[in-house]
Amino acid sequence: MRPTLADSIQVLIPNLSPALVSVPFAQRLIDMAESLPPIVNGLIECQLGADNLQADISQHILIDNREPDILMRHIINSGLSDIPVWRRVHEFCLQWQEQSSLMHGVVDGIGFELDADACSRQPHLPSFFMRMKKDRHSADEKQSALEEGLQILFGKTRPFPWQDVLHRCFEFREARLIYIGAMLARNEDALRAEFIPQSAGSIIPLLKHIGWSWDESQLKALIEWLIQLGACINLLHVDLGSEILPKIGISCLCGVGPEGRPDWPTLLDHLVEAGLCLPQKRDGLLAWEGFADPTSSSITWPPDIIVQSLMKPDLLSIFERDISHIKILYQPGKPLAAKAYLRFGHRWLKPEECSMVINDVRQC
């Protein structure tokens, strides 16, 4: 059988609380993961507020470890190359791996997001993200590299409605543009831009600089409230068209607890008190953290990883699970909403590392 990410997602699903994602939508996650290559590194996105029990899935692919080659083989062998969007992704990867290309120098990772709603309308169509290196390339070089990639992905040449706005994103010195997303599943030219702000105080000036023109007082109050809760704002998400769209996403990490571990329980308790997270969803999130190995899994281990393990007899294959971040969605005139992002990944452990991982999990 042809390996896909679905082989690994099936192993992870028993640890995904039905309070977060219902059984039918968990099965849909597996179905969506059938479209993706067997690279086990990504996120499951779920709503924390209203009784919305569906989820989206994303996958991260690095230029190291020949992961683009795995992706391109998957596109060909799975028949995805019959779909124009995936043919363009294949073309992107060919150009991205060309060491003389500007894209190779600027972009160090890509990612796919499969949205449950979009997949129900147009199966297999992803949103596509490019992650930029922290390097000495100029703003003009970075924009040129991104535009080169976006022209391939959208299948058309300039002008794009967001070109002037994108240029302003590179000009602001107190935040770093790290991700650009092309919403290919939505049949529109809008981009998702994700910034690492230098500080919480740089968020409003950044938005003003790039052209966000809505009332800032409520957003400023939200940022101050999150800081009071002990949250660390690590990413700012905005949508770019010919202008900046009103919805803003604020991604947060939790503070550190007394034992030096991430203190998700405290932050989630605050979100429950504020009505942004249902209590049962808080409990489901905290239950996600941990790891699985072939001896403890109730689901058959992915065949392709079993084959790899035959060549690594001194290493143990494990899947890790933890909470990546929480995103608060702000849109003028609408109630706040919260989402959680559950990270999953695969790694190989040496025997002496196994007890350390087990002890870490027991302390959670």
Brief summary of the model shown:
The protein has helices spanning 6-12, 23-33, 67-77, 84-97, 102-106, 116-121, 139-154, 163-171, 203-210, 217-228, 264-273, 279-288, 303-310, 351-362, and strands spanning 41-47, 55-62, 107-114, 127-132, 175-182, 191-197, 232-240, 244-253, 290-292, 316-330, 337-349.
Give an overview in words.
The chain is α+β, with helices and mostly antiparallel strands and 364 residues long. It has one domain. The chain contains 14 helices and 11 strands. Strands 1-2-3-4-5-6-7-8-10-11 form a 10-stranded antiparallel barrel, surrounded by 8 helices. β10 and β11 form a beta hairpin. The radius of gyration is 21 Å and the shape is globular. It starts with 5 loop residues before the first helix and ends with a helix.
Strand order of the largest sheet: 1-2-3-4-5-6-7-8-10-11
**Helix fraction by DSSP (H/I, runs of at least 4):** 25-40%
Q: What's the count of strands? A: 11
* N-to-C SSE string, H for helix and E for strand: HHEEHHHEHEHHEEHHEEHHEHEEH
Count of spatially separate domains: 1
Number of DSSP helices?
14
Low-confidence stretches: none
Strand content: 25-35%
Anisotropy-based shape: globular
Largest sheet: 10 strands, antiparallel, barrel
The first-to-last residue Cα distance is 37 Å
Mean pLDDT: 90
- Classify the secondary structure makeup into a structural class: alpha+beta
Q: Determine Rg (CA atoms, Å).
A: 21 Å
